[in-house]
Amino acid sequence: MAINFGYFAKESFTSFKRNWVMSLGAIITIYLSLLLVGVSVGSGFLLTQVVQSVEEKVSVRIYLKDGADPATVDALQQEIIGNAEVSTVTYTSKEQALEDFKTTMVQDSPEIVEQLEGNPLPASLDVDLKDPRNVMVVVDAIKASPNFTAVADRPDDPEKSLKYGQQIVNQLFTFTRMLRYVSIVFVALLGVISLIFINNAIRLAIYARRKEIGIMRLVGASNWFIRTPFLMEGVIQSLIGALLAIGSLSFVWLYVLPKLKESLSFLPLTLSGAAATQVSLILVISGIVIGLIGSGLAMRRYLKV
Predict the structure, then answer these.
(1) What does DSSP assign to residue 164?
(2) Most buried among 26, 73, 117, 192, using CB within 10 Å?
(3) What is the pLDDT, as a whole number, of residue 23?
């Protein structure tokens, strides 16, 4: 029997309209499933931004003793900048540290600034990292440097001259790593649940038309001739469900997210156009794939493949 795409498309749309109640049920199921997937993926993008903003605040500060040899400080600075994990190294003098402290404290606690006698603040080196997750690699390299021991402001215990959030760094990166794994597993589970829902919805639609399928088999129609309109119908239902999910998510991105950002201004709750496009493409492609797989699995019983 010759393959005619126009015939299959016409049959798919005719079946879609004739069984509009079952089609509507399948579309609503697909819409809700893909909406959950879209919310999960979109939340994953936002969560990644929040995690990255927290991780980017991880840096290393080295406090230098008063009267440290400038040549040794310069040698330590060059040694650190030569580390492949380091982005920049910034030297802050005692005078600049005092000015920065006054600028920070003058508005909230001016009495503290007024009571300062002399300059108790040490000079320092601030180390920014290319990948904050490798902070311990940089810290271990600094600890092993003789130049660091020579200029640290606590020569009796040089490790106390290093500040990099020792108490929270390991817990922070363990938490963010687990959060990423949980997000991936959650999205995968939603995909499986969506497939099960869609498979059941399409199976009900096919069950309602089992007599029609039986007649087609009696007149000698091949399995693919019978299967193709159902597959196309599943894709049509999935695409409509995906577009509805994208429309609902667009409303959230355009109207709900900006208000949420105003309330939580300390968090980077902004979804870029590229991220929104990626989420939309994921929903469309997922809808097509899930529709094809769900239709194919649902028809196996009736075609006895």
Answers:
(1) S
(2) 26
(3) 73
Helix and strand numbers, DSSP H then E, in the chain = 12, 4
User: Phi and psi for 272 in degrees, rounded to 5?
Assistant: -70, 165
d(CA 72, CA 288): 64
Other Cβ atoms less than 10 A from the Cβ of 212: the count is 13
Give yes or no for a contact between 299 and 228, defined as CB atoms under 8 angstroms apart.
Answer: no
pLDDT for 106: 65
Q: Give the integer Cα–Cα distance in Å for 53 and 240.
A: 36
Strand-pair partners of 162: 62
DSSP 8-state assignment for residue 148: H
Report CA-CA distances (Å) from 160 to 67, 198, 253.
18, 59, 46
- In 3D space, the residue among 210, 237, 245, 247 whose CA is nearest the CA of residue 291 turns out to be 237
At 73 the pLDDT is 92
Q: How far apart are CA 79 and CA 86, in angstroms?
A: 10
Residue 186's pLDDT is what?
74
Q: 203: Cβ–Cβ under 8 A, 6 or more apart, which residues?
A: 298, 301
Distance of CA 84 to the CA centre of its chain: 26
Handedness of CA 157, 159, 164, 170 (dihedral sign): negative
- Cα 121 from Cα 96, distance rounded (Å): 10
Mean pLDDT of successive 10-residue segments in the chain (305 residues)? 65 71 76 80 77 75 90 92 90 87 72 74 89 84 90 83 70 71 75 70 69 77 77 81 90 82 70 82 84 73 57
